[in-house]
């Protein structure tokens, strides 16, 4: 019997945890928290129930890990001329990721559900608001904002509105990217000075452009097709155990 | 044995139906669709299970009636100088009603859930968007809109954003009215001409003002306190059967 090196064992545990998280995302996205079955999750992840419980104590902890995923692993973006553009890019990149990453979609879905009160649904909102406020405060220091703008106000507005546009787009089968683009196009002229407003890119496809450069849409098609997310490839048929 | 006149019988049936709907709202608001128990609903409504099934064939039909309630019974509002103000008032009055009417709160909650696919969650969005578009088209005919505004775009934006601000406010314990006021304050200057924009009332409390006049907040306190909605008094301890 071969003994494995600790590093190999650890890598495999990380892969297993990831496989479970991705499988949970598929099931939570499809059924929501209450109706999701752990047996479906272990089947999709191709792991044992024991492996699942090794990584996540309960369905609740697993759902919480899915919820928290939306604020982990923010992609590093190239610096922009205006902080206001960075502010816009947070949401435009997120709409790109929502399209391509099931984990992100499931995370927002669980955040938007009203069920199970013990799940912490406030933290994702707060984390997003804090992130937006920090960027907007920096924009303010650089003189990009209109007078008397309290950075908290547009930050809350964008985060809350975004969540609703996400739900509505899902329910009506609309393209979220286009809806989010309209949100920024309508809101930003009342947040930033005109000289900044006219230089912002708030058009659909901005997420792909900032991630992959001016040929974003083309590069995205190249990299994203087949549902493989550009940031973190989904585990494909991983057979793993804890 | 006294025989009742048909009118008396019919009135009672209407009251029973309403009592069940209000009780269902309480339970759906608290637990969501999946976890809601019909036994709790009949207990609160003080009706028999038979009476419930007489009015609503199934839990699903009952939930659908709650969902549909948000678009029924739009309050009649006094005409305003600008159609753009009517556009704003749709949402400001709705945020007032959300505060005071459990049926409206439960309706939006069920609309925002992702669970049970057979419930029709698209219709409320579509009905709200259609209502907004109709008002904005009239505003456009009167020259109130900026050039090249497609009434569908701000209508979708407001309806979707509103839904998210509602969920976020609920989750974070924020005052929805203040969030919605910021939505209109930020969006309307990019929809209507400046001469209309500066005359719009988009401040918090607008819902109460348009319903009760300039002393809206005071009148609201007078009429709304104790959780009794201003438009349709909740049945209080109605003992009714089908």
Explain how this protein is built.
Chain A is mainly alpha-helical and 242 residues long. Chain A has two domains: 7-68, Homeodomain-like (Arc Repressor Mutant, subunit A), CATH 1.10.10.60; 83-227, Orthogonal Bundle (Tetracycline Repressor, domain 2). The first copy, chain A, is 65% helix and 0% strand. Chain A is built from twelve helices and no strands. The longest helix of chain A has 30 residues, at 6-35. Chain A is elongated. The model of chain A is unreliable at 225-242 (pLDDT under 50).
From the structure above, extract its key features.
2 domains, mainly alpha, Arc Repressor Mutant, subunit A, homodimer, 242 residues
* Unreliable parts of chain A: 225-242
Class of the largest domain in chain A, according to the CATH hierarchy? Mainly Alpha
Gross CATH architecture of the largest domain in chain A? Orthogonal Bundle
Q: Which series of helices and strands of chain A comes N to C?
A: HHHHHHHHHHHH
Profile the largest sheet of chain A: none
Count of runs of 4 or more consecutive helical residues of chain A: 12
Helix/strand-derived category of chain A reads: mainly alpha
Instruction: State the distance separating the first and last CA atoms of chain A.
Output: 18 Å
Proportion of residues in helical segments of chain A? 55-70%
CATH topology of the largest domain in chain A: Tetracycline Repressor, domain 2
Taking all Cα atoms into account, the compactness measure Rg of chain A is 20 Å
Overall residue-averaged pLDDT value of chain A: 86
- Please give the most extensive interface between any two protein chains, plus how many residues each contributes: A-B, 41 and 41 residues
């Amino acid at each position: 019997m071969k003994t494995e090196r600790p590093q190999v064992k650890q890598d495999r545990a990380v892969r297993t945890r990831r496989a479970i998280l991705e499988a949970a995302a598929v099931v939570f996205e499809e059924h929501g928290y209450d109706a999701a079955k752990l047996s479906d999750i272990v089947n999709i992840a191709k792991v044992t129930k024991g492996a699942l419980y090794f990584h996540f104590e309960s369905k609740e902890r697993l759902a919480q890990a899915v919820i928290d995923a939306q604020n982990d692993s923010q992609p590093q973006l190239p610096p922009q001329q205006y902080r206001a553009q960075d502010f816009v890019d947070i949401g435009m990149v997120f709409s790109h990721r929502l399209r391509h990453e099931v984990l992100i979609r499931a995370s927002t879905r669980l955040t938007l559900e009203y069920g199970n009160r013990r799940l912490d649904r406030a933290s994702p909102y707060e984390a997003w608001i804090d992130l937006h406020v920090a960027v907007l405060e920096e924009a303010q220091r650089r003189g990009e904002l209109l007078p008397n703008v309290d950075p908290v106000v547009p930050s809350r507005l964008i985060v809350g509105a975004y969540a609703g546009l996400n739900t509505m787009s899902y329910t009506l089968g609309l393209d979220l990217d286009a809806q989010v683009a309209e949100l920024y196009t309508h809101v930003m002229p009342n947040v930033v000075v005109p000289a900044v407003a006219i230089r912002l890119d708030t058009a659909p496809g901005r997420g792909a452009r900032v991630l992959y450069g001016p040929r974003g849409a083309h590069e995205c098609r190249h990299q994203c097709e087949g549902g493989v997310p550009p940031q973190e490839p989904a585990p494909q048929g991983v057979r793993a155990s804890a």
